[in-house]
């Protein structure tokens, strides 16, 4: 049995949060269904009112390996710590000190895009270990390693 996974994010601004995660993960916005030049065109064709056209945003892995991400607008804001979070491994395959420099540089890039750096954890798994606890622009925690 084939299993497909989608990760769904509740968001205040689904479009903005989705575009942030596209950059973080190297994903792309999901193209509209065949025969439609845009999502607005598709949504109009199935009767979605124009005021709801930007309530969702979907992103996909261009290599078809990672899960689809769906961002959906909800009226309430985030109120507690995530029970699930993403670990984003930007230093995979690299050795320290290069890996440590790559992780720190990527954290700085994401802060410039609206993320927050919450905690830096160094040395817990050995002298060359590092991960940074981050929050996306809407406060959803994730780890960068």
What would you note in describing this structure?
This protein has helices spanning 14-25, 39-45, 98-112; strands at 6-11, 28-29, 56-60, 68-73, 86-88, 116-122, 130-135, 141-144. It is of the alpha/beta class. It has 2 domains: 6-73, Signal recognition particle alu RNA binding heterodimer, srp9/1 (2-Layer Sandwich), CATH 3.30.720; 86-144, no CATH class. The strands form 2 sheets. The protein has a 4-stranded mixed sheet, covered by helices on one side. A hairpin with a 7-residue loop joins strand 3 (56-60) and strand 4 (68-73). The model has no long low-confidence stretch (mean pLDDT 93).
Give a short synopsis of this structure.
The chain has 145 residues and is of the alpha/beta class.
